[in-house]
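Section 3.1 - Work completed
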Amino acid sequence: MAARIEDYALIGDCHTAALVSSDGSIDWLCFPRFDSPACFAALVGAPENGRWQIAPAAEVRAVRRRYRRDTLILETDFEADHGAVTLIDFMPIRSGTSDVVRLVQGRRGEVPMHMDLIIRTDYGSTVPWVRQTDGGIRALAGPDTLYCRSDVPMHGEDLHTVADFTVAEGQTVSFTLTWSPTHRGRSPRQDWAQSLPATEKWWQRWAGRCTYHGEWRDAVVRSLLTLKALTYKPTGAMVASPTTSLPERIGGVRNWDYRYCWLRDATFTLYALLTGGYIKEAKDWREWLVRAVAGTPSEIQIMYGLRGERRLTELELGWLRGYEGSVPVRIGNAAYKQFQLDVYGEVMDTMHLARQAGLAEDENAWRIQRDLLKFLESGWKEPDEGIWEVRGPRRHFTHSKVLAWVGVDRAVKAVERFRLPGDVNAWRALRDEIHDDVCRQGFDTERNSFVQYYGSKDPDASLLVLPLVGFLPPHDPRIQGTIELIQRELTDGPFVYRYPLAQNVDGLPAGEGAFLLCTFWLAENLALQGCHAEAREILEKMLELRNDVGLLPEQYSVVEKRFLGNFPQAFSHIGLVNTARSLRPQLGPAPRSTPPY
């Protein structure tokens, strides 16, 4: 059985990432990209679907983990009967090869160690052909070849590669796993003595650019590092999470592949990065977006592949038993075909924020935005699947209409503030039309609240963004009524659920955890209303919720007290960064924009 989700840590190289459990096992790794087939898939299967464990062969008395300061270099201390060792895991910043380096360093006494490497390509379905080579082994299966090299001898045993060795105080034993396309032949060996300090320096230099200075700086920097780790360096795309099919309910079917670039998630990520001072990431993402939507910008998809791929066909992997029996395990994501109106506004908002942050204008970016506005002139009236990607009927979701308003509002601001060309009078009229429609049809006077969709009586946590994007002032009675309804019907302690699952609005069996981004949205709203003590209490509880290395999942089971959903989740770390910023005394809480209400 895989470890609990909260027992994993992340290592990565801005091309792909691996999850390392607290018992020294890498249970998830896709080479060479986030969305490549996994060579270790034990996370959503069994050990025989691939994993790589290095741990003491003796009884372990205690385990402690941490990242080296402001890096993605993971250190795990194992205390055993007759000594102590530290396992150091990292992925060197890529310069031609795809590598995982694992170092076992003796700290005290002598500790017997065991290494168990189970390589299974194509999501655990294929046993490679393994042969001994100088200093290690080569595992070949179709297009994929992996080399594992070490200071200690390894041998085959029941289709595993194993090694038994002892580490004494002051000694270091190294293992390096390298992926290479089979047709390229043997890959060069990684020199860990050079790559370890180089990797440490690279991450610390990036973290050092952070402009956030405040009470929660360490937590904010760790979240920003996590967001950076979810960025695909060659193109600037940002994945929502590095995993697939970690369940939103243990044993349930809400298991999705998040290893793609959602425009919504990427724009939220960029907002958090921009507030941290990371302008280059915004520029890279804007260039990726221009390439991805080229040809039909008015018909943008809600997500794309890391290089802008459009077809993300959803498949079920029947040979994998799922995380704790949560099946099916899916790759691809059928939601790429959905119409989600809100992404138009989110893209427009991010472009606006980039301009505000000083990013130089790009002619193609403004051309695309104007094409998006042409669609919104009529498209805003259409029902959609909404921010939560329902697999039920399309509806006129209130949040979607509000984000359509955001799209038009940011176009107006582009003309007013940045003197870009456009029919600003027509856009102002369209902005007013959408605003009036939402206030008339999306607000229920009996409940004194905005509701999930036109004609509904139910709350929806996505409505917490209304004051954050400047649709209405934070102290507007309609906003206050909406927050109060969400607090009454969608919260459990500090935790916020997305919507009432009993209504089956999403077309799926009921059951999921509290949604952490929505919880952070509530805290931001409370901060905007001046309820700083309440907002601070929520933030501090979310900080306590993080695992021992500062990572957050998508959802949380209040009953079982367990992490749920794909991990680590960009949405959740975005919420942490934004909420911490909203509570900075020197800045004061402020919505993302300040339009004429």
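Second construct:
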Amino acid sequence: MLVRGLFKGRERQEGGAAAKTATAVKRGTGLATENCAQLLSEIEQAGIAWFWATDEAGGISYLSPTIGERAPSWLGKPLTAVIEADPDDPPEDGARPLTFLLSSHGRIDEMIVRFSESDGKVRWWALSGQPHWQSDGSFGGYRGMARDVTAQYTRRRDDSRAAEFDSLTRLFNRHRMTQRLDSILSAFRPAGRCCSILMLDLDKFKHVNDTLGHPAGDELLRQVADRLRKAIGDRGDIGRLGGDEFQVILPDVDDRGRLGELASRIIQSVSQPYSLEGKRAVIGTSVGIAVAPHDGDTREVLVASADLALYAAKNGGRGQFRFFSSELKDEAQERTLLANDLREALSRDELELHYQPVIRIADNVVVGFEALMRWNHPERGPIAPSVFIPIAEETNLVVALGEWALRKACSDAVNWPEDVRLAVNVSPVQFAMPGFVTTVAAALSGSGMAAARLELELTETVFMRDSETVDMTFAALKGLGVRLALDDFGTGYSSLSYLRSAPFDKLKVDRSFVENCAARDQNSAKIISAILGLADALGMETTVEGVEAFDQLEVVREKGARLLQGHLFAQAMPIADVEARLASGALCFEPQGPVRHRPERRTVFRRVGIIHEDYRYEAVMRDLSRTGARIDGLAGVPVGTILVVDLGGGQLVVSTVVRASDAQIGVEFETPLTSDGAGGLCTRWRVSPLRLAAATAAASSSRATPQFVEVAVPGMRERG
């Protein structure tokens, strides 16, 4: 037995002095040895501990038989083939792993290892051992023991995990996410590696708690956690920071195209209806995104950047994602100023309604107008609805604006021909107000307009209330005799479920499908066809929005569209222009516009850097699209020249000159830009601040000579 082997060397070392002892002493030593061996054997048999030994080559030479029926088959194998350290519990700082200790013949003290029994159950042992040295000083393997600590270790590990996990959702908690982010940033910083974080919170969660109770709210959070796990998979860590706040950490991800797509999937997934105690609940979410090291290389700065992006996403209308940018701080202050001005806009008559025709595709005759709000600020000029409507919703000003729009639109349209309808957009905030139906009734009675001519356009977000209240509001509106249209149809996951119960008269096909419907290898045309077919089957009308070019018109006509809106026929116009056309009987709008749709170009006036062969030029970008830009201020650039356009903030775009005229060039980007979540464009990747600083320093010291001529552009400061 191993026990006898442990004492064998000692017996050999007994010298002549021991040989001279009396027979009684020999018998006493033998008795002590036998008693010790018996004691160790009893410990072994009782399962209190088991013993092990390896030979000089590292193979197992002894294992206590009580360890299991597989023990004999492990003889000769390395110890690490039988046991292993806990992968979820790495050694503490300064501690050596088991493989290192064995290879360096180090002492092993109470190391926790994992052992799988024959029935598949896992046991945990505290392993101890020390190297055995032969009389000639050579290594003779290990001698050691282990004791079962499964109960104690499991309890300690569970307690430790409880301190790192959220008890409700089983996601990581704030403490664990803080430690994880600190660890990643510290490890990644020297190599300039990237790490992205997503901050999100839930829209309308408080409403679920207030109407369905806290148990339903807890179940909702558990279901949200499950959806986040499916969306993120094993790409990153997910944590619940508290309340309805969540965070996602994505190491080594800085592609803003991928991040935007992931954020969109999260928003769409979380926004699907939930079944809670037999009732349906609909919430939403907004996402703020920041990427280290570009937006911060410490946890505090990076989280603050993501929080600011989340705030911007929520203020942008909710259900959106935003990337952090340095302009967001100025944007927050700007929104506060606009909110104050908006409160006075109604009383100062700065708001007005414009009307965009709805055209019957068969004969190009107008069948209705959609009322669209416009704000002409006395100092800032025209402010886009995409800017001031979200501000109005955040401050509840949208209720007053909505009431004004309903009254004004009905008053404007009362004298139109009886077969010309009026469409008015309704904010989800306005729809949720208890007096909304009364407001609609008052607008109709006050103007004298027939209810059948009024069409209220709603989006899916009106369903972010309990279904009974929504159904009651629908029934009351239909009782008035007005028509209901579901706007932006096809952009959410849940539209089909709403059609089963909501009494809509019309579906409006979202312009996002029309934009690419004429392009090759696009599914947009198929989606348009499917929506039109669905509406026909349900006996509903459809209006296709956003038709701006003849190739788009041909596609939607071929797919069976009957009504459409878009700049190809007419933009929104003031009421005076509408009345003039109606008075003259000019109800036919002939299409006028481009033959083919081009990717949307944004008119800009923005300073950019142009880099060519280590020389940097200053220029002005006037137009920007996903695939290219128009740049002023550089003359003598041949077509085909490769340039790098510096958009700022580490955004460098490799470009090819495709047009050149005087001091103006048109460039095509090697990699298309991606959405920044706010209607703008950005590069998918950015150059890290360290690399950018090094490149700038190298360019500054370079003696490269310019090959092109910088031409001053009005409004652009000369290089000094």
